[in-house]
């Protein structure tokens, strides 16, 4: 049908931007913590990127404040430090700490599996109940380890940040 | 997705509500339509759809063929999960507490009508990775003079990938295909590895160049949903990681593997080919003992 219409079907009915963007959240799969890790890796990546941009602005503030506001740089720095010692910024710091503490160990897991192909099992003869070899291989244990390490380190980070 | 063997033994609710996402290409309208059907034990989602088509609404369009999970035609999204309708028991998706089931066309595919999707892109991507044996000697490829040797462990390197039924569930579940429609997709990349792993094939350089692109295997981010929904445990997620690591070694000049050679001409028509006894017997069967005491199967007289 698509060929008869010269590919019109493909153009008209291709899933739209919102449907495509929501796909990681709308598709439900069983026995698939890798998908949770995929979504978390993306979200934490965006958080880290946003933090880095804000951090560059913050550390460079003694310089650009003199150009933009014509004030003493170090006075402006102290002003910013005063704002950042508030509770809202501590919560932000806690979120950034959580993002980094998940992104880094999960990144190591992804490097091992994606570049070196280790931990994904070897192809074989699937037997009932037909669980893919990747899901019984080492990467699944690494993933659970990543979740455990993440939660433990995040709790420690929370204690350090809020006390 | 692993088949739930226990599901067929349970009984579904007596009445099941089926919500189908429909699409009419003439008016270009999409809407949800609700049907109520009487369910019975052992009923699959495809049975439910056919019951609706036969008894309630003849205008529903869907694709199906074998009804036993071999043809891969009846892929739909049931309650948000891409599944083969014929292999999904109603008891897996509905319960007495929630007897409502939603059925949608496969995600990431253009919809032709109702539950029928257009696989043109999918098969074009499959073709693009050259899914056939390539030999350096073109004459040998066109007119092979014999058969190629292959050991059982080498066969196991490709066996699970040959189980693919082209149902498109992996493609529908992939979040990367959703974001990048030009991404080759789990099925095509898995098939590239199937031929890269095949010792009878010599075309790995060509395939590595095809998949080593922006929309090739580097685009995969290992969400592994393709493997989670695969009805045949083909495991495309593991295959793509394996393909990428082999490509990595190939780019470093470290990728090497055996290429099989022709072993003798093929047998003539009617010629008996002796096989090694261990290849033809079940474990625990003694050939000499069988010759001494042949097993006679007695059929009933009125057979």
UniProtKB/TrEMBL annotation, chain A:
Major localization class: membrane
InterPro entries associated with the record: SdhC_prok, SQR/QFR_C/D, SuccDH_FuR_B_TM-su
Molecular function GO labels: metal ion binding
Keyword ATP-binding recorded: no
Residue stretches spanning the membrane: 36-57, 87-104, 142-162
Location of this chain's protein in the cell: Membrane
Phosphoprotein keyword on record: no
Alphabetically ordered keywords of this record: Heme, Iron, Membrane, Metal-binding, Transmembrane, Transmembrane helix
Cellular component terms (Gene Ontology): membrane
Protein name, per record: Succinate:quinone oxidoreductase, cytochrome b subunit C
């Amino acid at each position: 049908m698509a060929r008869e219409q010269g590919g019109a079907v493909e153009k008209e009915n291709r899933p739209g931007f919102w449907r495509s963007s929501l796909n990681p959240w709308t598709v439900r799969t069983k026995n698939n913590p890798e998908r949770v890790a995929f979504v978390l890796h993306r979200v934490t990546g965006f958080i880290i990127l946003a933090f880095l941009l804000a951090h560059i602005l913050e550390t460079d503030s003694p310089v650009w404040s003199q150009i933009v506001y014509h004030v003493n740089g170090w006075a402006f720095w102290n002003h910013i430090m005063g704002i950042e010692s508030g509770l809202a910024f501590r919560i932000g710091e806690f979120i950034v700490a959580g993002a980094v503490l998940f992104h880094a160990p999960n990144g190591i897991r992804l490097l091992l599996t994606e570049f070196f192909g280790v931990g994904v099992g070897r192809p074989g003869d699937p037997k009932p109940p037909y669980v893919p070899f990747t899901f019984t291989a080492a990467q699944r244990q690494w993933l659970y380890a990543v979740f455990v390490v993440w939660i433990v380190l995040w709790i420690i980070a929370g204690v350090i940040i809020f006390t | 997705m692993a088949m739930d063997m226990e599901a067929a033994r349970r009984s579904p609710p007596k009445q099941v509500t089926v919500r189908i996402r429909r699409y009419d290409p003439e008016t270009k309208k999409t809407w949800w339509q609700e049907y109520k059907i009487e369910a019975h034990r052992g009923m699959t989602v495809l049975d439910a759809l056919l019951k609706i088509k036969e008894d309630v609404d003849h205008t529903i369009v869907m694709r199906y063929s074998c009804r036993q999970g071999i043809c891969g035609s009846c892929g739909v999204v049931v309650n948000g999960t891409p599944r083969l309708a014929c292999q999904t028991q109603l008891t897996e998706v509905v319960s007495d507490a929630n007897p409502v089931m939603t059925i949608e066309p496969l995600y990431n595919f253009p919809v032709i009508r109702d539950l029928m999707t257009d696989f043109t892109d999918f098969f074009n991507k499959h073709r693009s990775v050259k899914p056939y044996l390539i030999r350096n000697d073109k004459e040998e490829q066109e007119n092979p003079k014999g058969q190629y040797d292959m050991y059982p462990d080498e066969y196991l390197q490709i066996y699970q990938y040959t189980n693919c039924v082209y149902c498109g569930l992996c493609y529908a579940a992939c979040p990367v295909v959703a974001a990048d429609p030009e991404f080759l997709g789990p099925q095509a990349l898995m098939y590239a590895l199937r031929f890269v792993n095949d010792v009878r094939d010599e075309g790995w350089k060509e395939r590595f160049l095809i998949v080593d692109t922006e929309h090739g295997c580097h685009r995969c981010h290992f969400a592994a949903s393709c493997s989670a929904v695969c009805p045949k445990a083909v495991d495309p997620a593991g295959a793509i990681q394996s393909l990428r690591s082999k490509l990595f070694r190939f780019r470093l000049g470290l990728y090497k593997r055996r290429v099989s050679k022709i072993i003798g001409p093929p047998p003539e028509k009617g010629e008996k080919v002796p096989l090694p006894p261990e290849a033809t017997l079940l474990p625990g069967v003694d050939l000499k003992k069988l010759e001494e005491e042949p097993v006679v199967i007695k059929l009933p007289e009125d057979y």
